[in-house]
Amino acid sequence: MVNIVFHARMESIRQKQVGELVRRYFSNILTQEGAYIYGRDKLVTVTQVKMTPDLLVAKIYLSVYGVEAKYEVIEQLQEQLHRLRQLLSAKIGRQMRRMPEIELHLDETVDEMYRVDALLDRVNEEDQHIAELRGE
């Protein structure tokens, strides 16, 4: 019998610190520049930043509100990624040896939460309806 053990790679303290630094400053940049990129009617928030172990790539997870076509907002940000990275570098450049590359990812956790909540509400309504039909 062979035992296979998978180890989930934990983030180091430095990865978490740098991720939080990137999250904070990238959020500020989106607050200042977002309206010019994707318009004033949309809200984009940085939910988390995951740094690779070598700190050379920042995976930035974004939630998008106020629009159905969320990936279009991510594409608009992708088009401005070079400029956004320059703005981020100006903010944190002194605190890091090398500015990380940026990868943008859509975080659909909140959307999933609302979908599950709606499904649970529907199940509860159906249970109540069945109970009413049975006379309970």
Topology record:
Elements: H1 13-38, E1 43-51, E2 57-65, H2 70-79, H3 81-92, E3 101-106, H4 109-134
Parallel strand pairs: 2-3
Antiparallel strand pairs: 1-2
Helix pairs in contact: 1-3
Tell me briefly what this model is.
With 136 residues, the chain is α+β, with helices and mostly antiparallel strands. The chain is 54% helix and 18% strand.
In words, what does this structure look like?
- By secondary structure, this protein is α+β, with helices and mostly antiparallel strands.
- The chain has a single domain, classed as K homology (KH) domain (GMP Synthetase, Chain A, domain 3, 2-Layer Sandwich).
- It is built from 4 helices and 3 strands.
- It has a 3-stranded mixed sheet, covered by helices on one side.
- A hairpin with a 5-residue loop joins strand 1 (43-51) and strand 2 (57-65).
- Helix 1 packs across helix 3.
- The radius of gyration is 21 Å and the shape is elongated.
- The chain starts with 12 loop residues before the first helix and ends with a helix.
Uncertain residue ranges:
none
* CATH fold type: GMP Synthetase, Chain A, domain 3
Number of domains: 1
Sheet with the most strands, sense and barrel status: 3 strands, mixed
User: What's the N-to-C terminus distance?
Assistant: 54 Å
Helix content: 40-55%
Which architecture does the CATH hierarchy give at level 2? 2-Layer Sandwich
Q: Sketch the topology as an H/E string, one letter per element.
A: HEEHHEH
In quaternary terms, these chains amount to single chain
